[in-house]
Amino acid sequence: MSVKPSIAFLCASLRHGSINQQLETALMIKAADLGVDEIKVDLNDYEMPLFHGDLKAPETAQTLIDRLKSVDAVVIVTPEYNGSLPPLLKNVIDWTSTVETGHFTGPVYGIASCTPGPMSGIMCLRQLHYILTRVGAEVVPAQVGCGHAAAAFDGEERLAAEPSNGLADKMLGQIIERVRQKRG
Predict the structure, then answer these.
(1) Of residues 146, 136, 81, the one with CA closest to residue 109
(2) Which of 23, 98, 130, 177 is the most exposed place for a label (fewest CB within 10 A)?
(3) What CA–CA distance (Å, rounded) separates 102 from 138?
């Protein structure tokens, strides 16, 4: 591949120092080690009101869409709230999908979640996968579920726990391979 693949990393937790931001950082480090151009997309930069069908989409929706359409792949890292995805993420998907869907149908998607307990965000990942495919996204089969977050990372911001570490390698490998295939 002559041009490095570009992967945008988007975390659906805005809380400073959240475990999902730790997972995002660890995935970005892995991507850099693989020679990928990793790009952090901070949802703090794309404020959107609560979705309401009578309102016009905010300009930030188009700005985010343009940013996501400019990359080869997107990795969404999300917390799980009460067995579901956070309202922030659903709101972003709803607003941007009312404008267009090229940011879903263009890049290849990967999904990941980190939780303090053992379940590793499995319910949220299932729902996110369903929603993304409904709006036309191609989501690679490997998903990163990271449970027991307190013991999941080493002192250098890297993912250390198995099987999460292996799943991260597999997901990023599948993304890079799919980007190669799409580029021809």
Answers:
(1) 136
(2) 130
(3) 12
